[in-house]
Amino acid sequence: MTRNGRVRAATGSARENMWRAAQVVGPYAVTARDSATHYAHQAGAYLKPRAQRMALQARMNYDTHLAPRMGQMRQSLPEGMDRAATRAAERARIAARRARETTGPRIEYARATVGPAREEAAARSAAAMAAFRGGVTAREITRLARRKQRRARAGRMVKWLGLGTLVSGGALAAWRWWERQTNPDWLVEPAPPTEVAETSGTAEESEAVDGVPMEGRAAAEDKPQS
Predict the structure, then answer these.
(1) pLDDT band at residue 197 under the 50/70/90 scheme
(2) Which SS3 state, helix, strand or coil, does residue 199 take?
(3) Complete DSSP assignment for 42-96
(4) In the chain, what's the furthest Cα-to-Cα distance?
(5) Which structural domain, as residue segments, surrounds residue 23?
(6) pTM above 0.70, yes or no
(7) Is 35 within a domain?
(8) What integer pLDDT is reported at residue 167 of this predicted model?
């Protein structure tokens, strides 16, 4: 067996083993997920009323025991210290609100940035699982990736060609408009009329007199009269 054959056989066996492992582990994973969801609902149903009762009890204890003492302590404090504490609390609230307003958009931007990457990773993992289950070879995946890259390059080339054609057409139209503005038709001087030599009449007169050519007329005059 050649080296390529051994590599192909090893790849096929690894893919088959992963597919079998996925088939074996799949039902257990689904069962574990359902069990975790059920237990989470049960825990929420059990702890939620108790947490509410504990919060209500803590609020009642505060109103009963701590609130009067806090009021007495504030009354016993000097007037300047009370005002300083009030201003400090107000500044703390303002700082917290500003921090929330500043970090909120950044957090949203980070989420929007991470979202496509997460979707791309999920799509790639799903494609990898489909490739392992469907028997897609690495050569076919590489071929598809190269085809996608070629399509992307062709799209970019068509876009740049269209942009170059548009820019060239705009430059040509602007040049023609500028040429018309600098050299309008009404500024161009008309060409002087050409004089036609009136030699047709003299030529005809020299060629024939009374319909008889000049050469024939001379021969007739030289002939002796009978």
Answers:
(1) very low
(2) coil
(3) HHHHHHHHHHHHHHHHHHHHIIIIIHHHHHHHHHHS-HHHHHHHHHHHHHHHHHH
(4) 173
(5) 9-76
(6) no
(7) yes
(8) 92
